[in-house]
Write a structure and sequence with these properties.
about 280 residues; alpha/beta; two-stranded antiparallel ribbon; about 40% helix
Length: about 280
């Protein structure tokens, strides 16, 4: 069975019905719903609206993998407000039968010489424990994305051990550990079974070594070793979804003709279908 999903980030302004139709047409099996009024799924939905949204997705034969929240914990005083929103998203995830809630940690930077506050590590651990305990009561998992100061398996391994919660898991965004010089083999080995979701994208390094972000490309046209990453994940026993995270909202290089969802979505599913088929053949050879 194919396990292909996409984040609804590029679907700003779409109705859920339009999102579902695009998913079906392109051959996806899962939806990673970005939370926010601009994406039609948000914490202000009434119980009736939530029930209708879940029915719309289920009737199309699709699965809601997770709710992609913008919650970002830093261990600072600002976490109190972030936690209040996380509580609302966790309840939304429960109502939509999503397995997890995506969160970020740390600070978003664009240059390595950019100054950001130090992260009070023990405070961050306690905040994550609180969030995990709250979400567990709603039958939901907390999914940390490999991002910012916590982009690598080597950093996340210690954090996961210190948080020590069964429902504290990881979204492996394939580009960010590479941006920090960690190989996919190391990332996957360090995350182990706590890697439950994968964000697939492609890109190339930029010339300025102080810039933290690679330049994004179409899937298969960059330097991310997607085929070998899939092979490593499948060998490790990974059973989650491979979710396209197409960040047109924030990436100017994707805001050009030829990068629209109606072009990119079927390109992605065809590309990934071939890779997964080839991996299955290797596994049975």
């Amino acid at each position: 069975m194919q396990r292909l999903a996409f984040s609804t980030i590029p679907c700003e302004g779409w109705t859920l019905e339009e999102i579902v139709a695009a998913a079906k047409e392109a051959g996806f099996q899962g939806l990673e719903l970005r939370e926010g009024e601009a994406w039609s799924i948000h914490t202000g939905l009434t119980p009736v609206e939530r029930m209708k949204a879940l029915e719309t997705v289920k009737e199309a034969g699709l699965t809601i993998t997770d709710i992609g929240s913008g919650v970002c914990f830093t261990g600072s005083e600002g976490d109190a407000e972030q936690f209040r929103h996380f509580q609302k998203v966790a309840a939304l995830a429960h109502d939509l039968e999503a397995r997890g809630v995506r969160v970020f940690l740390g600070y978003f930077t664009y240059r390595r010489d950019q100054q950001v506050p130090d992260i009070p590590y023990e405070n961050l651990v306690k905040q994550l424990q609180q969030a995990c305990d709250y979400s567990a009561a709603h039958g939901v998992q907390l999914w940390i994305e490999t991002h910012n100061e916590f982009s690598t398996g080597r950093v996340l391994r210690k954090l996961l051990d210190d948080v020590n919660r069964d429902n504290c898991l990881v979204i492996y965004d394939v580009i960010h550990p590479l941006e920090e010089g960690e190989s996919p083999a190391d990332t996957i080995a360090l995350l182990g079974s706590q890697c439950v979701h994968v964000h697939v994208k492609d890109g190339i390094p930029v010339e300025d070594p102080m810039v933290t972000n690679w330049k994004y490309t179409k899937i298969g046209e960059g330097q991310i070793p997607i085929a070998s990453i899939i092979e490593l994940l499948e060998e490790s026993g990974y059973t989650g979804y491979y979710s396209l995270e197409w960040e047109t909202k924030w990436r100017s290089e994707l805001q050009v003709p030829g990068m629209e969802p109606d072009i990119i979505f079927p390109h992605y599913t065809a590309y990934m279908f071939n890779l997964l088929q080839n991996d299955e053949k290797r596994g049975t050879a």
